[in-house]
Design a protein that fits this description.
single chain, alpha+beta, five-stranded antiparallel sheet, 1 helix, 5 strands, 12% helix
């Protein structure tokens, strides 16, 4: 019994255009300025004493630490031992002002 012929289609490689060069240089990688390292105390943030801690670095120097919990967030500056506490409502208000430049009166909330 004769072997079955396979119909393989051979594709020709596209030839480079005349005068075109292939670039051998790689684009330079940009150096990352910021780095964030995180740690999670408990998997579920619903429990007490559970938080997400983020250490923020700029140019390999620690600029602060952000501790995110269920009821609020805490910011520790570069070499500070005291934290600044913000509840979520205050944080949202501050971000609205920062991002959109507007402050909503208490009656419109």
């Amino acid at each position: 019994m004769p072997a079955a012929k396979t119909n393989k289609v051979r594709r020709k490689r596209a030839k480079p255009r005349k005068g075109a060069r292939r670039s051998t240089r790689k684009a330079p990688r940009s150096v990352r300025k910021h780095e964030v390292k995180g740690g999670l105390a408990n998997f579920e943030l619903a429990r007490a004493k559970s938080s997400l801690t983020l250490e923020i670095f700029a140019n390999n120097e620690k600029i602060g630490e952000l501790e995110i919990g269920r009821g609020s967030l805490f910011w520790y500056g570069r070499n500070r031992h005291k934290s600044k506490r913000l509840n979520w409502s205050r944080f949202a208000e501050m971000m609205d002002v920062l991002a959109y430049g507007e402050h909503l009166p208490a009656a419109e909330k």
